[in-house]
Write a structure and sequence with these properties.
Elements: H1 2-7, H2 37-40, H3 45-57, E1 61-65, E2 68-76, E3 81-85, H4 96-102, E4 107-111, H5 119-132, E5 138-143, H6 145-157, E6 161-167, H7 177-187, H8 192-206, H9 215-234, H10 237-252, E7 266-272, H11 281-286, E8 291-296, H12 303-306, H13 308-320
Parallel strand pairs: 3-4, 3-5, 5-6, 6-7, 7-8
Antiparallel strand pairs: 1-2, 2-4
Helix pairs in contact: 5-6, 7-10, 8-9
Length: 323
Amino acid sequence: MIWKIVGAMSVECHEEARVNLPKEKKPRSDVCMQLNPKFYKEISPEFRTKLKSYRENHPIKKIKFNNKEIEYISCGSGEKTVLTFHGALGNAEGNFQAINFFEKKYRVIAPSITNFETLDELSEGVNEVLKSENVEEYILIGQSFGSFMAQPYFHRNFKKIKALILVNSYPPNNERVDDFKKAMKIIKLIPAFILRKLMSRELMKLVKENMEMPPKIREELKFLKAFIRERLSSVEKSVIICQSRLTGEFNSEKYRIEDYLGWDGKVIIFTANDDKGFPYHEKLKRQYPNVEEIIFENVGHMGTLLKRDEYHAILNRFLTSLN
């Protein structure tokens, strides 16, 4: 039961594993540039090369906040800025598929949200990153766990946000608060290596290999699984505890459309008829004004991979419509 609860934090599966490389970036010097053959030896040279080049061209930046270090990526250029939140157990790099798409036309800020104690601290820490980058107005996107964190962040900062994009999301569920409190007590007692194995099992459930897909997409899916396993191999127990705690706090909050009176921005929600969050999609829509909803068919949690061209076309149309 514990991992049904924790698994419900949901996970951005890093579903789009195709990386087109930007140019003229300073090379990255941290250890993540290296591709561990343990995870990537059976991955095609094409994907290995793209990931290595991506890491070399997207340096990790850091700022101090509340005696902590916040890592983030800042890249791209354009009149509009996109703030993107990664999925569960991810980090700034974990959102590379969103970064790759948005940086072609927009400036992108991608912070790591793995070490905040509360939702208020998350909001304040992300705002410090934006302040350090001289960003005052922006578009917010979150997928899966990132979409859970985007909702409370939007609630606290909506006056500065031009648009909200939620992918594979659901609204707070107050009935699950006690479940998460119980889960937290158990998680703290489980050794880190066991937590990693259990989380890996939950993550892989979202990567449905039995679906029909072109060979090229299936190869990306294989790469995706290697990318997830690499991340999980080094994720610290404190990250699992942090994100479980944040998700529990998220479920204790309430958001109403009346909270955003006078906000003239737009919201777009992407879901799928067979995704875990779909039963709550109507409640999620009722939270916000000016909502558009896109429902993909029979793609589970992998719509941004299996429906990538359609997803990108809709995003481009939505972003172009913003003032």
